[in-house]
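Subject: Predicted fold for DNA-binding winged helix-turn-helix (WHTH) protein, 293 residues

User T.R. writes:
Posting the sequence so we have a shared reference for the thread.
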Amino acid sequence: MMRYFKAIFGGFLLVASVCTARPAMANSDAVRFSENVNLSLRRTVDLLLRANGDSLSQIPPVKQTDANTFSVQMDHMFDYDKLPETLQRSFNSYHIDRPYSVAVLNCETGKVSLGYQFFDLNQPGGVPCRGRSREAGCYTLQVRFTPEAAKPQAAGNTWLLITAGGTLAGLGFIAWTRSRHKKRHETEPQEAPHSRIAFGNSWLDTANQALYNSQATHTLTFREAKLLTLFVRNINQVLERDAILKSVWEDEGVTVGRSVDVFVSRLRKMLAADPQVKITAIHGVGYKMEVHS
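User M.O. replies:
I've generated the structure tokens; pasting them so everyone works from the same file.
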């Protein structure tokens, strides 16, 4: 029984692992995206500094404000005209293809000095504010990506849960059926070796006090089973009334002669469906069970 519960428990673990796999994958993608943006911005700053003849200044760390906003500080004004192509080439190098907006912020005031949108790269006029004069000073390059639309997963997860639920239900049904069968088997009387005696088209189960034939199953009382056992062990033999009383009722101390007749009548009714078996009264002597092939 334990192996079925282990199977069901394993099924629950499977459902839990699969249903949590997508969030885990989403978290992994978010971390990978952040790392790639970080590298892209550092590459962009490095190229812009080198374009200004600066190959020695340290590049500050990239800051991430939220899942979609990144910024890096530049102590000296860079060549803004080179920014759009340089930044886009860096994103292409790290396979970043999400739309974004760029803002160049004054370090002291936090105000936007320059900026553009991703789609400006393909506009006839190009990126705004190119060629204009810019004051020297500290600026922060900020990039904000358009939030990625959530991928529809409900249908897939629903199908998965239905399938897994059906599998678990099947396992549960198997376990329940096996358990029920086991309990029933344990509670049913167990047949002792050689406890069945066949005669005619019937057979007697002495261990469970039951009579079977092709049409019915009869549960016998203790006396009925004992009397029928006596008959089937002495087929086609005459049994005297006193011998029957002694064998079947000897433990009662007081016996009544009519008891034999009453119990024989009961057995005759149970055996009526078997034409090969007949209990015949021998006048003045007793009874005989006749079995014809």
